Amino acid sequence: MSNEEVFLTKEGLAKLEEELRDLKTVKRKELAARLKLAISYGDLKENSEYHSAKEDQSFMETRIMILEKMLTKAQIVDESSMDLSKVSVGSIVTLNDVEYSEKIEYRVVGPAEADVLNNKISYESPLGKELLGKKVGDIISVNAPMGIIQYELLEIKLL
Asked: Taken in order 55, 58, 60, 62, is the CA torsion positive or negative?
């Protein structure tokens, strides 16, 4: 992970803090119990349950380290001082696909919160980069694998 700031919404911060709390308390205890049980089977050399639990432990501890680093570098988006005349991190935008006349709504968030299935796009994504600083009525062109997609920015709002 780089030394750059991590931009988070208040909701994103709460979600990451909750995940970290869960990993450190609940998941660590569950994994310790799994390891204890696997060790009781003996012969650790060929014990697949033990090796699986150790691998899961490694992934979990890495995730804990990543979350702790993110949270120390977190910059919370102050929605109360946001300028709704242009798109910024934390903005919710309504776009109209120019070619298909379909409306879609996205929330522009930091990479740590991005979740396309829940319409949260990173400001580092191709669309996110194009949206930052744009105003209602602007046309946004995004280079996609299928060609250039154009959107009209219809609305900027907050959660």
From this structure: negative
CATH of domain 6-76: 1.10.287.180
Cα 96 from Cα 116, distance rounded (Å):
17
Structure-token pair, residue 10: 């208040």
The C-alpha atoms of residue 129 and residue 142 are separated, in whole angstroms, by: 9
Position 3 scores a pLDDT of: 60
**Cβ count near 101 (within 10 Å):** 8
Q: Where are the domains of the chain?
A: 6-76, 79-157
Per CATH, the number for 79-157 is: 3.10.50.30
Residue 1 has pLDDT above 50, yes or no: no
Count CB atoms within 10 A of the CB of residue 43: 7
Find out whether 46 and 100 touch, Cβ atoms under 8 Å: no
Residue 127 burial (CB count, 10 A): 19
Task: Give alpha helix (H) positions in 8-159.
Answer: 10-22, 28-40, 48-72, 126-131
Say if CB 157 and CB 88 are below 8 A apart. no
Tokens of 107: 């929330």
Q: Give the pTM.
A: 0.77
